């Protein structure tokens, strides 16, 4: 593929997922050195990526972020440079620094967005309108109307826009998806995902104010369910229920409207059979117990006409017990941080890495004229067009909680709407 050129990438957001650096120091989660920065530094080492930039809000954080990345990545893995251009520059504070960064880019470059949920739409749109390919983390947007607008903008400007639903690249989930296709009509899906209460500290700048736990965590399994049911069934109605009281009490003291655990009950209808209807229950919590030995509890159950599937992604038959800290179940299938035999980064097969690499590959193929952005819609990729029903369900769940009523989902003149 001689005409594939290296991709210039701007990372928007400098937080836990990008650098592993939180406002309070290195993250205490399972992402102490982040995922996005590390993956892109490695893709630069391997020749797929060229210039790298990082845009945040508070420029005074960059010296500490650079030190953290140098100590934990640059000094740990062989041949790994951690350099990048920073925005805002000179220690300034500017929530719109991403605009200056994007204005300095060229059409065909790329932006990877890991910022608070309520900022995804405006940053994505700004980039797309300038001909920049976009990888935006989940939830792509909080409003269905915004998701529809991003689909239209990506088509108009002919750019790749993927939602970073990395669980689609988990070998167990993608195998389970293929097996679900053989089980006939859909009947029942239930998913549980939770993180320990300590995350309320990490996310205190926005938790409960700018987003909720359903958008933050249930987005993962709602997307998996929508992916399994693509072209088989559609969601028609959402009713939400929330448990409260832990996040808003000592020591977390989140804003009064913060929910602890949110459940969405969703009706689905078969596309191919008038008789078959299904039910899905998606629950997410950020008030799960501390010291459970796992960072994210995550399991789901799928039942079809001819069989069922059980997935427990938190416990994979691999645990480590240490005197001081007790038992921990690790997930190197997601990000493997231990170096290779030669001392290089060795996590290229982790699905956290693959998800970003597939986007980089897609953008490079489009830039080289080997593919069109619309080609990826025809595949199982989490393109902005292929993920519309995930946002429809999440948005309907939020409206159901706020307005205490069931919310319908339907297609009107080719566009998905809530009612
Ligand atoms: N932490 C995870 O494990 C994880 C996993 C997958 C996806 N995500 C998603 O990534 C996003 C961010 O999560 P995080 O865990 O890194 O959060 P975080 O709170 O640690 O970091 C958020 C970052 O966004 C920056 N930011 C805020 N407004 C901005 C703006 N206008 N322009 C540029 N940067 C801005 C903040 O400065 C901060 O660096 C969320 O949407 C989340 O759903 C997180």
Can you walk through the features of this model?
This is Gfo/Idh/MocA-like oxidoreductase N-terminal domain-containing protein. It comes from Boletus edulis BED1. It holds the Pfam family GFO_IDH_MocA. GO terms for molecular function: nucleotide binding; oxidoreductase activity. The chain is of the alpha/beta class and 419 residues long. It is 29% helix and 26% strand. The protein has two domains: 198 residues, Rossmann fold (3-Layer(aba) Sandwich); 192 residues, Dihydrodipicolinate Reductase, domain 2. The strands form four sheets. An eight-stranded mixed sheet has the order 14-13-9-12-11-10-17-18. A six-stranded parallel sheet has the order 5-4-1-6-7-8, sandwiched between helices. α2 packs across α10, α5 runs parallel beside α6 and α9 packs across α11. It is globular, with a radius of gyration of 21 Å.
**Can you write the helix and strand succession as a string?**
EHEEHEHEHEHEHEHEHHEEEEEEEHHEE
* CATH topology term of the largest domain: Rossmann fold
Summarize the biggest pleated sheet: 8 strands, mixed
The level 1 CATH classification of the largest domain is Alpha Beta
Heterogens:
nicotinamide-adenine-dinucleotide
Poorly predicted runs? none
The helix fraction, in percent, is 25-40%
Radius of gyration from the alpha-carbon trace, in angstroms: 21 Å
Overall geometric form = globular
CATH H level, superfamily name of the largest domain: NAD(P)-binding Rossmann-like Domain
The CATH architecture term of the largest domain is 3-Layer(aba) Sandwich
Strand content: 25-35%
């Amino acid at each position: 593929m001689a005409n594939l050129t290296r991709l210039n990438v701007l990372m928007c957001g400098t937080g836990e997922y990008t650098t592993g650096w939180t406002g309070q120091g290195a993250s205490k989660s399972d992402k102490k050195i982040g995922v996005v920065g590390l993956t892109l530094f490695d893709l630069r080492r391997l020749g797929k990526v060229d210039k790298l930039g990082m845009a945040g809000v508070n420029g005074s954080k960059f010296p500490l972020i650079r030190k953290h990345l140098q100590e934990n990545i640059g000094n740990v893995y062989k041949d790994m440079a951690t350099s990048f251009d920073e925005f805002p520059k000179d220690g300034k504070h500017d929530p719109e620094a991403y605009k200056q960064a994007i204005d300095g880019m060229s059409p065909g470059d790329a932006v990877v967005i890991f910022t608070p949920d309520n900022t995804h739409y405006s940053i994505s749109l700004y980039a797309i309108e300038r001909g920049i390919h976009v990888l935006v983390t989940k939830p792509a947007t909080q409003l269905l109307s915004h998701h529809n607008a991003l689909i239209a903008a990506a088509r108009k400007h002919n750019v790749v826009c993927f939602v970073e639903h990395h669980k689609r690249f988990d070998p167990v989930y993608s195998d389970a998806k293929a097996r679900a296709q053989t089980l006939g009509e859909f009947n029942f899906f239930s998913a549980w995902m939770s993180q320990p209460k300590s995350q309320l500290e990490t996310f205190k700048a926005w938790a409960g104010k700018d987003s909720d736990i359903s958008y933050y965590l249930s987005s993962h399994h709602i997307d998996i369910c929508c992916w399994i049911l693509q072209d088989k069934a559609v969601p028609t109605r959402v009713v939400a229920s929330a448990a409260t009281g832990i996040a808003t009490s000592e020591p977390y003291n989140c804003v009064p409207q913060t929910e602890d655990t949110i459940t969405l009950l969703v009706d689905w209808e078969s596309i191919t059979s008038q008789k078959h209807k299904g039910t899905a229950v998606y629950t997410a919590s950020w008030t799960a117990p501390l010291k459970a030995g796992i960072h994210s509890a995550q399991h789901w159950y799928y039942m079809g006409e001819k069989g069922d599937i059980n997935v427990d992604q938190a416990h994979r038959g691999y645990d480590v017990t240490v005197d001081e800290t007790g038992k921990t179940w690790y997930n190197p299938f997601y990000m493997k941080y231990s170096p290779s035999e030669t001392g290089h980064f060795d996590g290229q097969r982790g699905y956290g890495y693959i998800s970003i690499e597939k986007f980089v590959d897609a953008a490079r193929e489009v830039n080289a004229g080997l593919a069109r952005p619309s080609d990826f819609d025809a595949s199982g990729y989490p393109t902005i067009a292929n993920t519309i029903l995930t946002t429809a369900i999440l948005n309907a769940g939020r409206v159901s909680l706020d307005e205490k009523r069931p919310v319908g989902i339907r297609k009107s003149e080719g566009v998905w709407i809530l009612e």
